[in-house]
Structure formats: structure tokens, C-alpha cells
UniProtKB/TrEMBL annotation:
Protein name in UniProt: proline--tRNA ligase
InterPro entries given in the database record: aa-tRNA-synt_IIb (IPR002314), aa-tRNA-synth_II (IPR006195), aa-tRNA-synth_II/BPL/LPL (IPR045864), Anticodon-bd (IPR004154), Anticodon-bd_dom_sf (IPR036621), Pro-tRNA-ligase_IIa (IPR002316), Pro-tRNA-ligase_IIa_arc-type (IPR004499), Pro-tRNA_ligase_II_C (IPR016061)
Region (Disordered): 1-25
PROSITE patterns found in the cross-reference section: AA_TRNA_LIGASE_II
Entry annotated with the keyword Transport: no
Record field: catalytic activity: tRNA(Pro) + L-proline + ATP = L-prolyl-tRNA(Pro) + AMP + diphosphate
GO molecular function annotation: ATP binding; proline-tRNA ligase activity
NCBIfam families, per database record: proS_fam_I
Aminoacyl-transfer RNA synthetases class-II family profile domain boundaries: 69-307
EC number: 6.1.1.15
Higher taxonomy: Eukaryota, Viridiplantae, Streptophyta, Embryophyta, Tracheophyta
């Protein structure tokens, strides 16, 4: 164990001790989001019961609370790509070294991150086997086999799987882990226009995952030549921003691969004129990183804050019995409330555990981020009402049981919308336009996401990286937004002073 890891393990152990105590008292998180964001994040993902740390650095146990979020996003995306006639498949986890190294440009920079199996039991394998870091090289030999004529096109496949990338920079649950879950789509078309169209359709689905499900605003745009996937033609992405750290984060990518892989893997076909032609390919992915972005954007000092659309439990019903009160009546009212909500399609549960107090349960479900809490006590029973408490803003209100379902629906819709609105306000407040180098540096030091006019030259981007290199990482391009503000005639690049070609977002990033 390296020194840093050992220290972390012992800190983890002492944190666990602290937490056991907290569990009894319901005290919550020991770090504050504003004061120590890193510690806050490491703590909240465990206390919110999303993950458990594991004894291999960079690997995390995804607990049911995580998987239910993942499954909801998965159900949405899977149904949408099926509408696009994309089919699911599953290719093996292992890659033979010859195939892996076939596409040189593609693998070059990534080689150090590839994990290998070199033994079975005590004996060395004759040929070591790689574990997929992504599946281009796994799949494309079979694309070559399966695609013969234009009637075999388009070929549109997707797989839900895990991948392994042996990262060395500091691992962070969900954000940078050595194994993660994702979907990877790989498609092949006869014409470039078809590929171009799909790139944007998929990107729109990624926007919807972030904005409509996770309530996180994103920017759609194109990656620079320097930041694009080297094996492809161009890369589009959705970019999110974490105001607390002032870092951008790539939310998902949709690449047009052009014909690079088709050439390498000889994926050709006979077109409708009887000529030999090369396919046009795309690949696209989003991963469990989405969940980390959601935690960072919405979480607070009381714990997770889950948007209703992705919460496994949208409404938690808690009985509040009181000395001589009609406990059975209260419990029955809780049962009826859950039943009514479930029947109307809401994910609601009651917490009837008798070894925890109502107060403890409030903190517990707040920590887990459940969007709405319903409390039922003697007074509520007598008035035929329930008390509802919002997780996002702590607002409380009494709801007559007769209008329970309608009002819960309205409140959940409102929470979903208001989480997005607040996140967008916070994000927008971090966007700074910079037209000169001085303005750029000032904005960067103020943890902003910078929109700057740029000459779009790779050398200049490298130069900006070099000039901003420091302890907390260099600035780079995040994307050039599709939604381009007007660029006045004669506008100059903030970094090179040459004529600017486009507006581009810059910042530090994950
Ligand atoms: C790490 C090791 C080996 C990223 C890697 O984005 C190879 C790679 O190819 C690698 N890390 N990449 C780029 C992945 C490109 C592309 N693959 C399919 C996607 C979407 C899904």
C-alpha cells in the first residue's frame, strides 16, 4: 500500500468509527460542502448509502441506492435508443493484444491505463489478455465480418457493460474510478450524413438525462481538435460545471469516427452502385459518472438531494406516534398513504422501524436525499391530513388526505423544476466572458467557466495549458457551444491576438 493509500485507509477507518457514533445520534456529515468540498464528497457518497469504499484503490461498491438511480436512467435511454432501432448486444470483457494494438493512434495515449491478465492460478498465460477499456477493437473485427453489402447497413449496436481503466491520478467515486458502468454505442452507416445526424440525436438524449432526469444544466458543443477522441473525426459532448470547485466536467460524449476505424478494420461494403465503399462510424457513451455530477451539484450539508425523477424512493412516509395516541390509526394512515401513492405510480415507502425515533428517521432519509417526507402524527390523523416536508428547501405544508395524490404530484414536479432552476442559476453565475488574457486569468482565479473568443488553433490551446499549469491543474477547452453568441467582426483571440473564429468555453476540469 502506498503511503497516501495507507493514510486514507486509516482515515477511512476513523471516519467509519465517527460515523457509527453518528448513526446513533443522527448528527449527519462532519464536513461542510462550502468548507471542505473534497471531504464532504467522500463522506456523503458513503453516508448517503450510494457506495462503500473497497480495498482496491479506485474501485467502489455500488449499493442498491446507486443502482436504482442507474436503472432509471438506463430504462429511459434504453427505450429511446430502441426507438432509433439500435440493438443491444454483449461482447467479451477480454481483448487479445494483437487486436487491441491494431489501431495505433487510438491506443497510443491510453496504453498505460490498460489492465492485463497475465496469470491463471500460478502459471503465466502464454499470451497476456487485456481487459476492455472501451470496445472499439473488440467489436470492429466483427463489424467487418457482418457488413458485406449496403443492405447490412446501418448496423447499430449498443452494450451495457463495465470497463476498466487503470487510472493513476486521484480516484474519486463515480467521477474517476478504475472500473465503471456505462453504455457504449457503436454504429456504422453507408453515408456520412446519416452518421452526423445520429451523433446529434444521441447527444440530445444525453442532454435529457442531465437536464430532465438529473436536473443539471449542460452545454452541448464540439470538442477542440486537441480534446477530441484521437481515433475519431470529431467529438461532441455535454459539459456540466461544479460551482464549488470551479471545474467543468465532461458529462457524456458522442463521436463521429469518420472512416478511420473502417480503414483499420477493413469495414467495407458494396454500395448500391456495386462499388466498394467504406462505412462511416459513430461511438457514444455515458457512464455512472452522471451520478457523481448529480451528487456534487445538488447535495448539501444534510446529505444527498435526489431529483424526484431518479429517486428510488420519492416519498418517505414516517409515523410520528405519541404517548397515548392512536398508534394503530397512525400506522394505518401511513399504510394507506403509501398505497394511494404507489397506485398512482409514485415510488413511496413507509419507515415503520420501531428501533429508531422519528427524528432519527428524518435525518436518515434526508441524508439519503429522498425528495419528499410525509409525517403522520395524532394531530394529522385527527384533521385527516398529512404533513409534507421538502428535502430541497425544507418547506413544510399540510395536505388534506383527500387531495394527497394531486398535491404530491405537484410538489414533486415543483422540486424537480426548482432543483434545475437553482442549479442553472448557480452555473450561470459562474460563467464569465473574457476577451483578453488578463480577463481570462482573473476569471480562472475566480473559479469561473470562461467563454472566450478563440482562434481555434491547437498550438494556442497547448500554450494556454502550459501558461496556466499549476498545482490545481491547467485550463483547457471544455467545448465550443453549438449555441454560438454573435462574434463581432474583428474580434481577436483572447490568447493569441489572432482573429477569433469561435466562442469556446474554457476552464479547469475533472
Ligand atoms: C483508455 C484505455 C484505452 C478512453 C481509454 O468515448 C483506450 C481508451 O479509447 C479509449 N480511454 N478511450 C476513448 C474512448 C472512446 C469512445 N469509445 C466508445 C467513447 C465512447 C464509447
Amino acid at each position: 500500500m502506498a503511503g497516501g493509500e495507507a493514510k486514507k485507509a486509516s482515515t477511512n477507518a476513523s471516519n467509519r468509527k465517527k460515523k457509527e457514533v453518528k448513526k446513533e445520534t443522527g448528527l449527519g456529515l462532519s464536513s461542510k460542502k462550502d468548507e471542505n468540498f473534497g471531504e464532504w464528497y467522500s463522506e456523503i457518497v458513503v453516508s448517503g448509502e450510494l457506495i462503500e469504499y473497497y480495498d482496491i484503490s479506485g474501485c467502489y461498491i455500488l449499493r442498491p441506492w446507486t443502482m436504482s438511480i442507474w436503472e432509471i436512467m438506463q430504462a429511459f435511454f434504453d427505450a429511446e435508443i430502441k426507438k432509433m432501432k439500435i440493438k443491444n448486444c454483449y461482447f467479451p470483457l477480454f481483448v487479445s493484444p494483437g487486436v487491441l494494438q491494431k489501431e495505433k493512434d487510438h491506443i497510443e495515449g491510453f496504453a498505460p491505463e490498460v489492465a492485463w491478465v497475465t496469470k491463471s492460478g500460478q502459471s503465466d498465460l502464454d499470451v497476456p489478455i487485456a481487459i476492455r477499456p472501451t470496445s472499439e477493437t473488440v467489436m470492429y473485427p466483427y463489424f467487418s465480418k457482418w457488413i458485406r453489402g449496403h443492405r447490412d447497413l446501418p448496423l447499430k449496436l449498443n452494450q451495457w457493460c463495465n470497463v476498466v481503466r487503470w487510472e493513476f491520478s486521484n480516484p474519486t467515486p463515480f467521477i474517476r474510478s478504475r472500473e465503471f458502468l456505462w453504455q457504449e454505442g457503436h454504429t456504422a452507416f453507408a453515408a456520412k450524413e446519416e452518421a452526423d445526424k445520429e451523433v446529434l440525436e444521441i447527444l440530445e438524449l444525453y442532454r435529457r438525462i442531465y437536464e430532465d432526469y438529473l436536473a443539471i444544466p449542460v452545454i452541448k458543443g464540439k470538442k477542440s481538435e486537441h480534446e477530441k477522441f484521437a481515433g475519431g473525426l470529431y467529438t461532441t459532448s455535454v459539459e456540466a460545471f461544479i460551482p464549488h470547485t470551479g471545474r467543468g466536467i465532461q458529462g457524456a460524449t458522442s463521436h463521429c469516427l469518420g472512416q478511420n476505424f473502417a480503414k483499420m478494420f477493413e469495414i467495407d461494403f458494396e454500395n448500391d452502385k456495386g462499388e466498394k465503399a467504406m462505412v462511416w462510424q459513430n461511438s457514444w457513451a455515458y457512464s455512472t459518472r452522471t451520478i457523481g455530477v448529480m451528487v456534487m451539484v445538488h447535495g448539501d450539508d444534510k446529505g444527498l438531494v435526489l431529483p424526484p425523477k431518479i429517486a428510488a424512493v420519492q416519498v418517505i412516509v414516517i409515523p410520528v406516534p405519541y404517548k397515548d395516541a392512536d398508534t394503530k390509526g397512525i400506522f394505518d394512515a401511513c399504510d394507506d398513504t403509501v398505497k394511494a401513492l404507489n397506485e398512482s405510480g409514485f415510488r413511496a415507502e413507509a419507515d415503520f422501524r420501531d428501533n429508531y425515533s422519528p427524528g432519527w428517521k428524518y435525518s436518515h432519509w434526508e441524508m439519503k436525499g429522498v425528495p419528499l417526507r410525509i409525517e403522520i402524527g395524532p394531530k394529522d390523523l385527527a384533521n385527516d391530513q398529512v404533513r409534507a416536508v421538502r428535502r430541497d428547501n425544507s418547506a413544510k405544508c399540510d395536505i388534506p388526505r383527500a387531495s394527497l395524490v394531486e398535491q404530491v404530484k405537484d410538489m414533486l414536479d415543483d422540486i424537480q423544476q426548482s432543483l434545475f432552476d437553482v442549479a442553472k442559476q448557480n452555473r450561470d453565475a459562474c460563467v464569465q466572458v473574457a476577451k483578453t488574457w488578463d480577463e481570462f486569468m482573473e476569471a480562472l482565479n475566480n473559479k469561473k467557466m470562461i467563454l472566450a473568443p478563440w482562434c481555434d488553433e491547437e498550438e494556442v490551446e497547448k500554450d494556454v495549458k502550459a501558461r496556466t499549469k499549476g498545482e490545481i491543474g491547467a485550463a483547457k477547452t471544455l467545448c465550443s457551444p453549438f449555441d454560438q453568441p454573435a462574434l463581432d467582426e474583428g474580434t481577436l483571440c483572447f490568447a493569441s491576438g489572432k482573429p477569433a473564429k469561435k466562442w469556446t468555453y474554457w476552464g479547469r476540469s475533472y
